[in-house]
Amino acid sequence: MPCPHFSFKLLGDSRRKDATDEVRQLVFQTLLARSNNGRLGKKVRGEVAAQFGLGLQTVQKIWKRSKASLAQGTVADVKSRKRGCSGQKETPIGLEPLHNIPLNERMTLDEVSRRLHVGKAKLIRYMRKGQLRRHSNNIKPYLTEANKKTRLKWCVNMIDQESTSNDQMFKALFDHVFIDEKWFFLTQNFAKYYLLPDEDDTHHTSKSNNYIPRLMLLCVTARPRF
């Protein structure tokens, strides 16, 4: 025949083990009302745990801690003491020195970590908080003043001269054809494949690794004609 205390322990472990301070206060008041000169019966703790849906160990800790605080002449302490609330607090760091570091020396987190003397894991946490961000910068074509004037002149020439000054429109471009070319390498300098055990290794050759034959594709684009 199983021990009744063992069955209560199983029931307590299957229930949630955390509770708010208000619930813990009600648990203590219930235990205090059912106690006899500061002593509880054998089944009282298990019954109270089942009543509030708490673990048996949680109820025992509430009762033990409350009795200890009352013995010292203070108010019963029933507040939760979670592990996450203890321990050394994270020391905040200042990211202002990052302004004085050149951009070419902070292209990776490793470089930023080394220059700021801060761990990489802490920088990742700052990125999740939004205090540090990653920026991708693509190279843009450099335009001289002559290039800008040429582009502006081409755009002005695309305005339809027959349109009114109040409602200017661009040309229909039915007499324009745009041509573009694209080069494709016939093979790659390095290739990786996934083969079965009974397949032979691939073998491709080229006269030079730096000058691989290419194929040009010429494309012509124009507005649809109806």
Automatic annotation (TrEMBL):
Pfam families assigned: DUF7769
Domain DUF7769 positions: 20-73
InterPro entries tied to this protein: DUF7769 (IPR056671), RNaseH_sf (IPR036397)
Signal peptide: none
GO molecular function, one term: nucleic acid binding
Name of the molecule in the record: DUF7769 domain-containing protein
Gene label: gn00316
